[in-house]
C-alpha cells in the first residue's frame, strides 16, 4: 500500500493520503492501565497487532489492515482515542480513504508489542490527535521509522464506503461515500459514534449487508471492484486466443477484457473459458467485441484476479454492432434462451461507444505481449516467433484445406510491391489482385492444419475485409514453391499452427494507424482537414499528451528542487525531485539513442562474450526560472523510462523507431513541466566518499532514475 500526495498548499505541510479496502478490522480496545496484570494484558493482546506508537499515552486503539484492490499491497492503520471511537464500526470490505495534514506514515512499525506476524513489516499509518502524536515524537526522537516533526496544523478527514452484498452473488456494491472530518470529533462528545453511525442488524461479521431484492434481473459488477467469488459482469474484449482442446475432452480459450474502471490493456482481466465442444465456444472476432458473463467465478491467481467461465454454471453473451446496421446489436451465445432487456441494451451501447475512443488511445500492451507487433520488412530471422498486424490481400486454397496461403501486406519496406518478382506478387498478378499501395513488402502466411478452426469460428469469411493481428507465428524457410517460380526474393514464410491466434483489429487502433502512416506519412497531420468525418475521428490528433510517473514514496517525502539549486549543490551523490520540461534531446538522430555493449562472459556460456543493445541519450531540462540541466538517460533506468520498448537496433526495427519518435516529439512539444527523479554523481574515475562536498573543478553529472514516461492513452487510468 503506497501513500498518495495531494496538491501542495502555500506554506503548508505536505498532505499524505492512503486508501484501500479493509482486509482485517480488530475490535476497539481499551489500552492497558497502570497496575494492570501483565499476564492479563498479554492474554488480551494475543490476537492484535500491538498498541502502536501512541499506545503508552492513549486510552483506546482501533487497528485496521487496508489492502489495495489492484496490487494487493497492504498497510496497517492505528486510530487512537476520539478517532478510534468515531470509526469503531469499520469492518471487512469497507472502502476507506484517509488524507490530511498530520497523517503519520512510516515504512513499518517495529515496536516491542507487535507480534511476529505477516503484518509486522507492513507500512503503517497513525491517526491521532496532536497531543498524542507530540508525546510519541518525544518518546522516539531519533527513530528512523517515525517523522521528526509535526505540521503546524492537523486536519485529517476519513472517507468510507459501506459495502452491500449483491443478491445471489459474492460481489459487493457500496453506498455513497461518507466523510468524517477532524472537527466532527468534538461534536456531541459524550455521545459515542455507535449512535451516529448505527450498524444494521442484518449486517454479519464479514462486514457485508444483504441488499434488498431488486425488481431487475442481474446486478453487474465493474471490473475494478471485483473480489474473489461469483460475479455478473460486462467487458470489452482486447485480446483472446483461439479454442484448443484441454487434456480431457473440453475446449478452452482465454479472453482479456477491460471496462471504464479498468481501462488499460496491461491491466485487463483474463477470463478462462471452458466448454464441452467447439460449437459452444464464444464466437469472438474483433478487438472491441462486448461480452457478458453470468455467474462467472473470480479467483486470485499469481497475484492477479482471473475469471473462470464454467460450462456447467456460467453463461455468456457476445455483442457487437451489425455490419449492415450499426444501430442494431448482434447477439451470440450457446444458450437456448437468454435475457436482454432495456438495461442491457443501454449498458452494451455505453461500452461500444466508450471502447471506440479508449481502444484508439490506449498504447499499453496486454500481459504476456510486452512488445509492439513486428513489421513485415523486419522479419529476417528464421526460427523466431513474431506478432504482425497486416492486411490480407488474397487467400489461396488451390492445394486444399491442408495447405492454405494468405498473401499479406502492412505497408512497410522501401521496395515497390507492384514490380516485385516475389512469388507472392506473381500470385497476385496471376489472379488480377490489385495492391492497396505500391509501397511495401509482401509475405505469405501458411496454414497446415488450423484453417478448419478459423472457418468454424467465423474468421475465414471476413479475412479480406479487416486488418488482422496474428500472434505467435513461427518464421521458417519456405518449404514449397510454385511450379515455374524462379524467385528467390522471399525465402521465408510465416506459419500458422496450434498456439497461434488471430483477431480482427479496428482501423482506429494505434498499430493500424502506424502502418497506414508508412504509406501516407502526412495522413495523421491532414486528418483534421479531411472531409471524411470518420477519418478525422481516427486520425485527428493534436499535440499528444505525455507525463511522467514517479514512485509515490518519493513524491511524498522529497521536496521539489529547482534546477538552479541542483546545480549549485556541492554534495554528491544526492537525489532530487525536479519539475521541468524537455527542450532538447540528443542524439537528434533517433537511430543513435541505442548502442551495442559487450556483456561479461557467463560460465554457462563457455566463457564466450556476447553483446546487447542499451539506451544512452540526454534530455535537456528547463524549469520555470529558465535554468537548464542536461540529464543522462541510460541503461536500466532508460528501459524503465521507456517501458514496453526494449532497446534494439533502431536502424532495422521500424516499429520501435516509430513508437520512440512519437514519444520524443510529444516530449518536446509538451508545454507543461513534468516531474523527474535526478541523481547527482561524479564519474567513477574520481572516487569520493558518500555525502562529500565537491570541489569547483570536479565533474558532476546528472542521471535519471525511477521515472516512467506515460503517453496519451494512459490518461484513461
Task: Give an account of the 3D structure.
With 717 residues, the protein is of the alpha+beta class. The chain folds into four domains: 4-196, no CATH class; 223-361, OB fold (Dihydrolipoamide Acetyltransferase, E2P), CATH 2.40.50; 376-505, Nucleic acid-binding proteins (OB fold (Dihydrolipoamide Acetyltransferase, E2P)); 546-716, OB fold (Dihydrolipoamide Acetyltransferase, E2P). Helices cover 16% and strands 32% of the residues. The chain has 14 helices and 36 strands. The strands form seven sheets. Strands 1, 2, 3, 4, 5, 6, 7, 8, 9 and 12 form a ten-stranded mixed sheet that branches. Strands 29, 30, 31, 32, 33 and 35 form a six-stranded antiparallel sheet that branches. Strands 13-15-16-18-17 form a five-stranded mixed barrel. The longest helix has 20 residues, at 342-361. It is globular.
Quote the beta fraction.
Answer: 25-35%
Average pLDDT works out at 79
Query: Tell me about the biggest sheet?
Result: 10 strands, mixed
Distance between the termini: 18 Å
Number of domains: 4
Shape, per Cα inertia axes: globular
Q: What is the total tally of β strands?
A: 36
What structural category characterises the helix and strand content?
A: alpha+beta
- Rg is 30 Å
> Helix count?
14
Extract low-pLDDT stretches. 1-13, 111-117, 190-215, 524-543, 686-690, 713-717
Q: Helix proportion of residues, in percent?
A: 10-25%
GO molecular function: G-rich strand telomeric DNA binding; telomerase inhibitor activity
Subcellular location: Chromosome, Telomere
Domain Telomeric single stranded DNA binding POT1/Cdc13: 220-356
Pfam families: POT1
